[in-house]
Amino acid sequence: MIHAVDETAERLGLYIGQPLANARAMCPDLKVFDADVVADAKTLSDIADWCDRFTPLVALDPPHGLFLDITGCAHLFGGEAALLQTLVRALARQGFAVSAAIAGTSICARTLTRQASGTIVADGGEGAAIDRFPVSALGAGEAITTGLRRAGLKTIGDVASRSPSEITARFGARFSTLLAHALGQGDAPINPRKPLPDYIVEKRFAEPIATDTMIAMTLSRLADTLIASMEKQGKGARRLEAAFFRTDGAVRAIMVETGRPVTRSAVIDRLFRERLDALADPLDPGFGFDMVRLSASRTEIVVQEQRDLDAHVHDNDELAALIDRIAARIGGKRVVVHLPEDTHIPESAVLAAPAQHHLAAAMQAEWPVRTESEPPLRPLRLFDKPEPIKVPFATVPDGPPHQFTWRRALHAVVRVEGPERIAMEWWRQDGKQLTRDYFRIEDAEGLRFWIFRDGLYEGEVFDGDGKPASPGWYVHGLFA
Amino acid sequence: MSGARTSALATLRGQIERIETAEVVHQHDRVALGHGEIDRVLKGGLARAAVHEVFCEGRQGAAATGFVMGLAGRVSARRPLLWVRQDFSEVEAGALSMSGLVELGLDPRRVVMVRAADVESALRTSADALACDALGAVVLELWGDIRQFDLVASRKLTLAAQGSGVTGLMLRMAAQPLPSTAETRWMLRAAHSPPGSASMPAAPWSAWGAPRFDAELLRNRHGPCGRWIMEWNCDECQFSEPSTYSQPVAAAPAHRPDPAVLQQRRAG
C-alpha cells in the first residue's frame, strides 16, 4: 500500500492507497521506502519548532500540516507576502516540498494550500477564493467527500450555495462548521503547541553567532530588555525559556525556573550561565545561531518588601536566590526542604518537597515537639528501606535479641530500650502491614541502632501451613 | 636591586598581606561548644568562617552525623543550614532524618537539603553555597576516599568560607584523613552510654542517655590536639563534659541544716 507519493510519482498517476504491486506494474523502477509515522511526526514537530521564529502561535495539523497564527507578526518580516516567501524558500532550501497560503481563517488557508499554494487572501475574500476548488480540498474526511460528490456537489462553491440547514441535516454539524470557517463565516482559534509566553524578547543576527561569549552577551542584553518590559507592569519572572535557533533549522530550548519572581537581569543572566554550564548535552552552535529568543512563560506580580528594617527578609531572598542557582545547575527536584506529615509511621513522617516552591511553607512548618530531658527517641539517620538483620532464634519470644548480624558483622547487644509498638495504619488500603515493635539498642562498640521486629510474635506471621512463624528483624535507623 | 624586581616583591608582599588579612577578618568569631576543655584548646570555641573536617569509619557514620549536626547547630545560630550530600552516602549510611533532628533539639525548618548525584556537583554546590552569606553553615557529606577532593578543592572551600563568614563542615564517612586547608580535623567514634548506676551495678539493660561521642582532634591550626568524650545535651543544644550517670542516681538532698546549727540558733 502506498502511504505517500512525491510530485514525480503523482505525475505518473500513482496515488495514495494504491497497492504496491499495481504501482510496480505501472512503474517498474519505483523507489520504495518504508513509511515511518513516528519519524514523520517528529519531523513535523521539528519544523514547528523552526516556525516558532515567525510567531509563538504554531499549531500542528497532522499528518503534515502546520497552522501559524501570524496576526500582528507579518510586519516584522516585511508584510504578509514577504513572510510567506521567506518561509517557503527557507523550507524548500532544507529539502521539503512546501505549499503555503495566508487567509483570514485557518481552515480557508488550509484549503488554499491544497489547491493554490502561495495565495494570500484578504479578509472577506475567503468565499470567492475557494469557490472553484473541489470539495476534497476541505479535508473533511473520506465519507463526507464521497457523499458530497455523489450528491453532485463537486466544488466548494456548489456546497456553499446550498442552505446550511440542508448541509447540516445531511453531513452533520461538524462539517457545516468546517465549511463556514472555510468560507470565512466565523473562525475557531488554532490550538497552539505551547502556551503563549507572557513576555518575549528576541534578537536576530544577519551573521550567525557561535561563540560562548557572544551567546552570553546576547542573553544578558535580552534579559535587560525583558526585565525592562516586565518592570513597567510590576511583574517578575518565575519561569524563563531561552530558545536558540540554529541556521540549519534545529532549535534548542532551555528552561530555568525560580522560586520567587525575578526582577533583576543579573539574576537571569547568572541562572542561565549555571544552566548552560551544567548541561549534560551542551549547546551545539553548529554553523551558528541566527536567532535567540528569551521568553518569560510564567510571571507574577512582585510585592515590594521593605528591606532595611528587617534583615531576615533579605536573608531569605538570598537563600531563595542560592536555591534557584543550585536548582538551575542540578535540577529543581534535587534541592529539597522538609515538611512534617501527619502520620506516626517513621518512614513517611517527613515529606521532602522541592525547595523552590515550598521554602516559605517549610520555614513555618509545625514540627512535633520533643519531650524535655528525654534521650532521642528517633534515629538521626533513617534507612529508606529497613535492612534485614539475622537474629539467632533462641531469644525471649517477645523480647529484644542478644546479638544480631547486620551487613555481615556481628553486633552484641549491651543495652536495650523498648519496645515501642507502632501499629500500621489499617485504614489505608495498601495491603496488610504488620505491627512493629521497635527497640533502641546499643552494641558493645557503643553504636546505637533502631531495630524492629516485623509482626507480633505468634500472632501475625504465619508459614505456608498456617502455623505461626518467627517474625523478621530489621534495622531501620542509626542513632547518633 | 632593579626597579622591576622591587615592584614585583612589593606586589607579592601585598598579595601575602591580603591572604593573611582575609583570614584575620573573622578570626575572633568563635562559638563555644560547651565542653570546657575543648573550648580551651580551640581558644574559645569552633571558628566560624572556616572549614572543619569530621572523619569517621563507615559504620560510625551516625555518630559523626550527630557530631556534625551539633557543630552546625552551634555555629549556625538560627540561620539556614544547607546540607549537601551525595546519592551514594544515603544508600550506605541512611538518610538524614528530620524527626531525629527534632529529637536532638535542632530545628528542621532551617535545613535545606541538596541531593547531589555525584561528587563534582556536590563540591561545586558547596563552594557556591559557602559564598552565600545568608547561610549559617554548609555541610558537605561525602562517602569514601575521594580523588576530586584535593588541596585545590579544599582551598577553594576555605576561601569561600572566609569571604562570606559561613562555616563549612565536611562530613567524611569511610575516608582517610588527607592534607587539607581545614581549620580543625576530627576523628569521630561513638562512645558508650555511661555504666549503670551504683545502686544497680549489674544492670546492662538500663536506660541510655544523651548521645555521646568519642572525639579525637587530629588537627588544630591554632592549638594542641587531644581526645575527649563529649556528650550532646539535647535540651540546651550544646555539648558538655560526659556526665557519669545519664540520670541523677538519687534525689538531690533538700536543704536540711545540721541539727547542731539549729540548736545553736535556738540557743543564740
TrEMBL record, chain A:
<dbReference type="Pfam" id="PF00817">
    <property type="entry name" value="IMS"/>
</dbReference>
<feature type="domain" description="DNA polymerase Y-family little finger">
    <location>
        <begin position="200"/>
        <end position="282"/>
    </location>
</feature>
<dbReference type="GO" id="GO:0003684">
    <property type="term" value="F:damaged DNA binding"/>
</dbReference>
<feature type="domain" description="UmuC">
    <location>
        <begin position="2"/>
        <end position="113"/>
    </location>
</feature>
<keyword id="KW-0227">DNA damage</keyword>
<dbReference type="Pfam" id="PF11799">
    <property type="entry name" value="IMS_C"/>
</dbReference>
<comment type="function">
    <text>Poorly processive, error-prone DNA polymerase involved in untargeted mutagenesis. Copies undamaged DNA at stalled replication forks, which arise in vivo from mismatched or misaligned primer ends. These misaligned primers can be extended by PolIV. Exhibits no 3'-5' exonuclease (proofreading) activity. May be involved in translesional synthesis, in conjunction with the beta clamp from PolIII.</text>
</comment>
<comment type="similarity">
    <text>Belongs to the DNA polymerase type-Y family.</text>
</comment>
<dbReference type="InterPro" id="IPR050356">
    <property type="entry name" value="SulA_CellDiv_inhibitor"/>
</dbReference>
<comment type="subunit">
    <text>Monomer.</text>
</comment>
<dbReference type="InterPro" id="IPR001126">
    <property type="entry name" value="UmuC"/>
</dbReference>
<dbReference type="InterPro" id="IPR043128">
    <property type="entry name" value="Rev_trsase/Diguanyl_cyclase"/>
</dbReference>
<protein>
    <recommendedName>
        <fullName>DNA-directed DNA polymerase</fullName>
        <ecNumber>2.7.7.7</ecNumber>
    </recommendedName>
</protein>
<dbReference type="InterPro" id="IPR017961">
    <property type="entry name" value="DNA_pol_Y-fam_little_finger"/>
</dbReference>
<dbReference type="GO" id="GO:0006281">
    <property type="term" value="P:DNA repair"/>
</dbReference>
<dbReference type="InterPro" id="IPR043502">
    <property type="entry name" value="DNA/RNA_pol_sf"/>
</dbReference>
From TrEMBL, chain B:
<protein>
    <submittedName>
        <fullName>Protein ImuA</fullName>
    </submittedName>
</protein>
<dbReference type="InterPro" id="IPR027417">
    <property type="entry name" value="P-loop_NTPase"/>
</dbReference>
<dbReference type="InterPro" id="IPR017026">
    <property type="entry name" value="ImuA"/>
</dbReference>
<feature type="region of interest" description="Disordered">
    <location>
        <begin position="245"/>
        <end position="268"/>
    </location>
</feature>
